[in-house]
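Exercise 7.
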Amino acid sequence: MVDPHSITPPGENKPPIRAETSPAAPRVALAHDWLVDNRGGEAVLAHLARVALERGEPGRLYTLFDGHGPYSNAIDEFPVRTSGLNRLPARARRWLLPAYPRAVEGLGRSLARDHAHAPINLLISTSSGLIKGIRPPAGVPHLCYCHAPARYLWSATDQYTRGFAGRVRAAGFALFGPSLRAWDARTAGHVTRFVANSSFIRDRIREHFGREASVLHPPVRTGLFTPDASITREDFWLCFGAHEPYKRTDLAIDAAIRARTRLVIAGGGSALPALRRRARRAPAGLVRFTGRVSDAELIDLYRRARCLVFPQIEDFGIIAVEAQACGCPVVARADGGALDSVRDGETGALFEGEDTDAIVRAAHRIHDRMGAACRANAERFSIERFERGARAMIDEMLGGSRG
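Solution. The predicted structure, written as tokens, is:
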């Protein structure tokens, strides 16, 4: 579950709220797959870190790789402990997957040694990879906020095995995939409580790990992404994100050509060259690529577009909520996290499968009166709501660890 644009959560330019400390103040350690960017996963980590600092003292932050930040004031309060893989060149990281389990186990041993020196009361991991397998010290509860069971192992291996490099990875998955999945499932037992970012991921956790999870949707910057009644919506569709093959932006292009409707494609991604070639079939001016955009430019697009086209299956999909926060309805595939965030016929229109005609029909159900409902719906995913939920969970876990 990640945003394709950088994230600075509101309040992160100020020192995090610190608890009144005492010798008995709880200490919380964090674990995160890798710290190499400031995107959606790091935004969730930042808010969890802020809440943890309200409750007690920072332990360490354990991660496979560290790009040395800075990330956010709250994250930067936690001294970072990295795996031995961090010493290798960054370009090699995507080829090191078979070594990840042993690296995570090594981080668990580091955590145990640190705990012996300065005991912790709670371990919180945020995981879309294998870091959830880190073993907590005996008696220490482990709360895992799961963005998804590792997609490259469980649900989307084919997306990582395209092209020449993909064929090399495919051979690696064939050789190491079964043992990696077995390790990932087995180490789910190191987690005391799972929290999923959507109902979709809750079901995936049950399917792959045999565990139940509660749902706490990620925080969305609804204070930044806002509507503007003075701006008139225009007759174009918007498709925004990091355009990778699984985002299915090709479906949006085909649907726009079929509907003879202008389409603006914003954002970067490895699929852009192929998408530009595909768009050559459209009449001149029908499909426009903006490249990467700033927050201000994105907000302007959300406020002017007739709708956001969201043809992919996402674990949650923060972009769909950002659009609604700006009053922009969403045409979304009826799968994945969109089933939590888009209300069919009220804040957008859902379509089934990969049928471009279905996208066109769904877009025809969009109307201007949806704007107010979109904004009200987006407020269900605010930062304040996320932090209230996080406080309740952390307090419950700390209470159990001390009780």
